[in-house]
Design a protein that fits this description.
There is one protein chain. It contains 6 helices and no strands. By secondary structure, the chain is mainly α. Keywords: Cell membrane, Membrane, Transmembrane, Transmembrane helix. This is CidA/LrgA family protein. It is a multi-pass membrane protein.
């Protein structure tokens, strides 16, 4: 178990190092997750111990929301002052996300239909 938690942290560290070294605009932990994913694909699956560590981390994920909740409560007055702007931003970003997702699904759906219509011999 210790090996696998160390592996997860090592991938995160490697991601942070790559981010800083190359000035990438992607967060280091995301790069680390990609590195871990590539390693798991190369290895051919998820080892049982890594699965247990992942399940343990996910079962305690709610603890990670405590600092965010404290921050919200600490700045509740500021949030109240900016409630209209925050609300507009949330609604606008949600609508934009839905629209972009629908557009991507439409494009991918057309592409999938074209691929399915060609057949194995290009008919």
């Amino acid at each position: 178990m210790l090996f696998f938690i160390t592996l997860i942290f090592a991938c995160q560290l490697a991601g942070e190092l790559l981010k800083v070294a190359f000035g990438l605009p992607v967060p280091g932990p995301v790069i680390g997750m990609v590195l871990l994913l590539v390693g798991l694909i190369v290895k051919g699956g998820i080892p049982e111990g890594l699965g247990r560590v992942g399940d343990t981390l996910l079962s305690n994920m709610s603890l990670l929301f405590v600092p965010a909740g404290v921050g919200v409560m600490l700045h509740i007055a500021l949030i109240g002052e900016q409630a209209l702007a925050i609300g507009v931003a949330l609604v606008a970003s949600t609508l934009l996300t839905i629209a972009v997702t629908a557009l991507i699904m439409r494009v991918l759906g057309r592409r999938g239909q074209q691929d399915a219509g060609e057949g194995p011999h290009g008919n």
